[in-house]
Specification:
Elements lengths: L1 H17 L1 E3 H16 L7 E3 L4 E6 L5 E6 L4 E3 L3 E10 L11 E8 L15 H4 L9 H9 L9 E9 L4 E13 L2 E10 L5 E10 L4
Antiparallel strand pairs: 1-5, 2-6, 3-4, 3-6, 6-7, 8-9, 9-10, 10-11
Length: about 210
């Protein structure tokens, strides 16, 4: 009888363990995906930020409920749909205007990757172990100062942004020249970071909450 009870307890324990995902099990999987995508030599520059993982559970057919999973904890798998692991990539050779780059590894309830990561989010010079070849500092400011805007500017600002369609980083220079129906009117120059050349010159209406 005692042996039977011990067997039942053991089976129940194994069953409960099988219904949970350990924090380390999840992060080992996401680390492996990063390593395959960006190379092992860059793994020291990735850090999970924040340390808590985000879990999405189905409450009904149309809604998901999110919860946090802390280190050294386990998550129940019942109704679990997705697990998100957010990483911050920081490298000493990244330009000061890009202090870090963020990635989210999205996994399903069997820890399979949902959306592939874009390897071009890490600048090529970093992946090749080279010095930064982007236009920076005084050279960058000279380019901005010499742009020929067609509209009279009310305010200007610039920032480096990644464009998913082109899979490239650009220095985007925004010049706000008006406001219409709750939308800011912008004249935008897109500058190639490696050559300093204007790749695109366009006009856009942008909602006031976006920029």
């Amino acid at each position: 009888m005692r042996l039977l009870i011990l067997c039942l307890v053991s089976v129940m324990h194994l069953s409960l363990s099988a219904q949970k995902l350990q924090y380390n099990e999840i992060t080992e999987t996401s680390d492996s995906i990063l390593s395959k995508t960006f190379g092992t030599e860059l793994m020291d520059f990735f850090e999970i930020q924040p340390r808590d993982l985000i879990l999405f559970y189905s409450r009904n057919k149309s809604r998901l409920q999110h919860k946090s999973l802390r280190q050294h904890k386990a998550a129940r798998t019942e109704n679990l749909k997705e697990v998100w692991v957010e990483y911050s990539f920081t490298h000493p050779n990244l330009p000061a205007s890009i202090p870090d780059i963020h990635f989210v590894v999205e996994l399903d309830n069997e820890l399979r990757l949902i959306n592939p990561l874009d390897p071009n989010r890490i600048p090529r010079f970093l992946k090749q172990g080279e010095k930064c070849n982007w236009v920076e500092g005084e050279d960058q400011q000279n380019i901005i100062d010499n742009l020929k805007f067609e509209k009279t500017s009310k305010s200007k600002f610039s920032r480096i942004e990644y464009h998913h369609d082109d899979r490239r980083y650009y220095l985007n220079v925004y010049s706000q020249y008006g406001l219409e129906n709750g939308y800011y009117l912008y004249e935008i120059f897109m500058i190639a970071m490696d050559s300093g050349e204007t790749v695109r010159h366009e006009f856009k209406q942008v909602h006031s909450h976006i920029l």
